[in-house]
Write a structure and sequence with these properties.
The complex is a heterodimer of chains A (about 525) and B (about 240). Chain A is mainly α and about 525 residues long. Chain A folds into two domains: about 230 residues, no CATH class; about 240 residues, no CATH class. Chain A contains 21 helices and two strands. In chain A, α7 packs parallel to α11 and α17 runs antiparallel to α21. In chain A, about 40% of the residues are buried. By secondary structure, chain B is an alpha/beta fold. Chain B is built from nine helices and ten strands. In chain B, the strands form two sheets. Chain B has a six-stranded mixed sheet with strand order 6-7-8-3-9-10, sandwiched between helices. Chain B has a four-stranded antiparallel sheet with strand order 2-1-4-5. In chain B, a hairpin with a 2-residue loop joins β4 and β5. Chain B is globular, with a radius of gyration of 18 Å.
Amino acid sequence: MLRILVKKQLEEVFRGYFYNSKKNCMRPKWQIALYFVFYALIMVGLLGGMFTGLSFSLCGPFTVAGYGWLYFVMMGGIAAAIGIFASVFNCYSGLYLGKDNDLLFSLPIPLRTIIASRLINVYILGAMYSATVMIPTSVIYWITAGISAISVICHLLWYIMITVFVLMLSCIFGWIVAKLSQKIKNKGLISAAATLLFIGLYYYCYFKAGDLIQQVITHVDSYADKIKGAAYILYLFGRVGESDIIATLIMSAITAVVFTLVWRLMSRSFLKIATAEGKTAKIKYREKRYTQKTVFGALVSKELAKFTSSSGYMLNCGMGILLIPVGGIALLFKGKMLAEVIGNMFADKPGVLPIMICGALCTLAAMNDIATPSVSLEGKSLWIPQSLPVHAGKVLRAKACVQIILTGIPMLVACICALFVVDASVPVKILMVIVPLIQVVFSSLFDLILGLKMPLLNWTNELAPIKQSGAIVASMFGGWIFTMIMMVAYILVGYKLGAFTYLIICGVIYALAALIMLRWLDTKGAKEFEAL
Amino acid sequence: MLNIEHLTKRYGDKLAVDDLSLQIMPGEIYGFIGHNGAGKTTTLKSVVGILQFDQGKITIDGKSTMDSPLECKKNLAYIPDNPDLYDFMSGIRYLNFIADVFEIPVSERNERIRKYADIFELTDDLALPISAYSHGMKQKLAIISAWMHSPKLIIMDEPFVGLDPKAAHLLKEMMREHCDRGGAIFFSTHVLEVAEKLCDKVAIIKQGKLIKSGTMEEVKGDASLEDVFLELEEVPEC
């Protein structure tokens, strides 16, 4: 039974890879393979590549100095952080808010099987991301210190310990959010606030981690002694990586005990939380003055209402709304220093700074992919826009418009902040504001097209299209790739043209691409939406 | 009002609707009956324009749904078999959204919302989120949103499912009034007694093919609609 439920959930997560919902048929094998290769490339190529570099720089010095365990503590910590970041935000809704709750609870399926299937789903997501750190960690260690059967077994257990730890933390966080949600009226708001608090803490630790790693490398002896003395459990954890059998047995036992406790906590409260209706304020309707909206205004307003009603949607697809202005303000404080570093790095390439800052802001903007899941989120209510007397192109424009507004306004703030940092001519400064704004329009349309091309309409949990669809991965990484190309091309050849001409070229390319995509959305895109 | 000519719709190799032709005149309540999977919903969705069909022609008030889809949609309202509305909106916000799309002036919409919400005793609950509504309340909201913009043609898929007896009775009265004012209604149902009492005309569909249609008297004669339906179901295929 567990296998059936897990298979059902995984099929839902990867449904877009196997099934073409527009043509109502299975995708051909080559297309499925292509999707998975693309996904693997992103996971292994980008994330894995990044952590391979870090493992390579840490493993040798630590192992030679006899502190291999510290290497595993540090890399294990990073793996856990990445895993938690990937799985924690969907834990609450993934565990408790499945649309198939009523159906599953009415079937003769043991409750523990349902809980286990939901946990496995959360586990797999966290484990996939943690693996991008742990696999390079192990491989680099084996290259440096040699490989043995015991080492492989210990590393496997080490992998399980970290991923189970990630699962436990995610579950506890999900449980806390669930308990809070039962007591308050606006679930979306409190869930978003709690998650934002977590993200704030996460990023604080993340930025501190860089300094900490540097500190540990510089004073490895002193830190190793301190960890052994004050946090012996971390030492044991690191020793698992060095194939210490006693440490492996102790840590495995601790993990099993803690997991059992979390499992009990979950089992006791699961049904109550999953079937709770929550509090709805008993508001008696009183007629209010209402200002009539235009058709387009009504569609945009509806999309905004959808976005602000779901904490999962806001947190997974709208982080840029917060990060872009934060980036702008950070530029005001640290911009001069950044300008100096970039100026020194590329002393022979004039005009690099405006391009780099534009690129950095566009990279933050790529974290907003509100338009991508907006088509899939129509779900079973897709009949509404399809049956209304509104051209499908207008419905799609409204979806893109929300991302343009919610990314464009913070982007404008950040661009204005950037102007205080960059010492450039007035025309370049004007372009530094215009080009990122055009890029916002471009990426909003690009994200929408991806969402339209890879729709996921038969979801049972809205996090499936928001977080787990291929379109989401493609839109986020696509946005980063575009800005990377913009920055790298300048460093390689663009500097010969100068920042002004280069920015004009970028702006024209983005604008032309945006116009072409808009035209496509109005014509072929509209037809595809109607045919969904 | 509604003219369906040789409608054909396939799902892969399966023929869901096979060369179906129907004509619904102003003032008529037209019932559409058939067993599960007979092609009723497919036909209704094709008329509304949310399902593309393979062959045939559908015109609403003389306009083709293929050539002038928006003009056609302006003249019709659709209530699906399962009212999946926007759960993230309150009832009143949803009604205002629909009213904005149909460009109904504020004073008119307020009057209509008040009128229909009062009829279905939903007024007090309009400020609640739709996610807190029961199935029946959602169905009532879908009915109000359909009637609110005074469409000429109303398409309904199993409209009585989930409604309490009082609401079902009120809906029947509203359907009659709508048709008496010159509108038309095309709806599917499994409740043959309702179809028998309410409909001016009825069509029976089996495996995508229209097997009988016409006025109630033409279809059933002296027998009951249930007898006719069951008898027709037994007709062996050619």
